[in-house]
Design a protein that fits this description.
Oligomer: single chain
Number of domains: 1
CATH superfamily: Aldolase class I
Subunit structure: Homotrimer.
GO molecular function: 2-dehydro-3-deoxy-6-phosphogalactonate aldolase activity
EC number: 4.1.2.21
Strand content: 15-25%
Mean pLDDT: 97
CATH architecture: Alpha-Beta Barrel
Pathway: Carbohydrate acid metabolism
CATH topology: TIM Barrel
Number of helices: 8
Organism: Fulvimarina uroteuthidis
CATH class: Alpha Beta
Strand order of the largest sheet: 5-4-3-2-1-9-8-7-6
C-alpha cells in the first residue's frame, strides 16, 4: 500500500539521516522531507538518497528560491515542499523533474499553485483551516487534486480528514524531533501508518 504520509524531519543531522530513513521506510513511510532550515540539510538529503535508493521519495521542505531547487536537483532529490506557492519555485521544480508540493491556505493560492504545475497542495496550517474549511475549499478544486493536511494534525485526526477527502498528511514533530532516538521514531511511525491504514482502508 502506498501511503501519502510525508515525514518532515526538521532538525535532522547528517549523522542520523540514514538510520532515521531506515526506520521510516521499514514502517511504511516512503516520502521523506528534510526542511532546509535544518543543520546541513543538503548533506542529509544526499546521504539518504544514496542509502535508500528507490525505496523512498526523498526531498526538501522550506524551499524558498530557485537556487535551492537547482541544488536539490543536482543531488538527485525527488521532491520539493514549500511553505508558499511561489510560481518560480514550482516551475523550476517541474523542469527538474521533481514533485512539487507548495503550501497554500486559500482558493487563490491553490489555483495559482496548480496553474504553475504543482503535483499536489500542502494545506498549512491545517489545524487552523479545519476539516470544515478544507471541505468547502476542496469543492472548487479540480477533481483528483492531491491535497495534504500539514500542521497540527496527528493520527487521531486522520479519519476526520479522510472523511472530507484529504489524500494525505505531512507529519513533523509527531514523527521526529531533534534528539529523538531511532526507536522512538519507529514507534511513532508505526502508529501513524496504523492510523492511516485504518482511515484509508
Amino acid at each position: 500500500m502506498t501511503r501519502d504520509i510525508i515525514a518532515i524531519l526538521r532538525g535532522l543531522t547528517p549523522g542520523e539521516a540514514c538510520e532515521i530513513a531506515d526506520v521510516l521506510i521499514e514502517a511504511g513511510i516512503t516520502k521523506i522531507e528534510v526542511p532546509l532550515n535544518s543543520p546541513e540539510p543538503f548533506d542529509s538529503i544526499a546521504r539518504m538518497i544514496a542509502h535508500a535508493g528507490n525505496a523512498a521519495i526523498i526531498g526538501a521542505g522550506t524551499v524558498l528560491d530557485v537556487g535551492a531547487v537547482e541544488r536539490l536537483a543536482g543531488i538527485g532529490a525527488q521532491m520539493v515542499v514549500s511553505p508558499d506557492a511561489f510560481p518560480d519555485v514550482i516551475g523550476a521544480t517541474k523542469r527538474a523533474g521533481m514533485l512539487s508540493y507548495p503550501g497554500v491556505m486559500t482558493a487563490t493560492e491553490a489555483f495559482a499553485a496548480l496553474r504553475a504545475g504543482a503535483d499536489g497542495l500542502k494545506f498549512f496550517p491545517a489545524f487552523k483551516l479545519g476539516t470544515d474549511g478544507y471541505a468547502a475549499l476542496s469543492a472548487v478544486l479540480p477533481k483528483g487534486t492531491r491535497c495534504f493536511a500539514v500542521g497540527g494534525v496527528g493520527p487521531d485526526d486522520f479519519q476526520a480528514w479522510r472523511d472530507v477527502g484529504i489524500a494525505g498528511f505531512g507529519i513533523g514533530s509527531g514523527v521526529y524531533k531533534p534528539g529523538m532516538s531511532a526507536a522512538d521514531v519507529r514507534t511513532r511511525a508505526n502508529d501513524l501508518v496504523s492510523a492511516y491504514d485504518t482511515a484509508f482502508r
